[in-house]
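so my prof wants the structure for this chain in the tokens format not the other one, which i didnt know existed until like an hour ago. anyway here's the sequence
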Amino acid sequence: EMNRLWKYALVTVFLIAVLVCLTFLDRREVNEYHSRTCGGVRVEFEAGVDKSFITEEDVKGYISKGYGDCSGKRLEDIDLQKIEEVLNARGPILRADAYVTKDGYLNVLISQRRPVVRLISGSGSWYADASGFIFPTQRNYTSRVPVVDGRIPLRITAGFKGVPESEAEKSWMNGVLELVNFLADNRGWSDSISQIHVDTRGRLVLVPGKGRERFIIGRPEEFREKFEKIEDYYRYVRSRKDEGYYSTVDVSYAGQIVCRK
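here's what i got, hopefully its the right format
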């Protein structure tokens, strides 16, 4: 019985000693953290995303301009939430996560927006992602996505980032995204359409890579029916006329194909 008590006592003393050591090491680490200064900024990009859309230098520049120089600052004085807010305010960035590591560096993990369409008008050039979020194009990178140009019916100016304000604008933007998805799902059409244009009446006009025809599809909706009518045009109308006979083919009306020279 006495031996058992001695064993319990030794185990208890050992555990207390371990706890004291751990507490001492933890306090030492905390003290070192409070005195440690930032040695620089490391930028990491989400896996699977083209890093050239925004560069490491861009991200560091955003931090420097919007927050300030972090090098030499004590780690505990760096406002990580503020840095994330500065970066998240940038259009191309979907999400930024900032944290510091024991080696004294500020680390930033960047998730980028993925553009699916480019909008070009007289007032500027923008990308839009799959959610309809619009942001300015970047000077160092051009994404190979469908382009919509002309009289873009959105109240956006150079440098705009965000979603359209009115319901009508949101509806138009969502329709354009549906058109882009339709073309992506129908590779034959995607390869043959070289331009998507918005005319002075606000109608969407498809410009094929070959031929004189311009296909007016009107509002961005009911794409399957409209493209079926374009196929009917090639099958039953174009085959009976000389190439280039018609300049415009309007498929925006229900049950009709209106051809004009």
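also thought this was worth mentioning. Residues 2-35 form the longest helix (34 residues).
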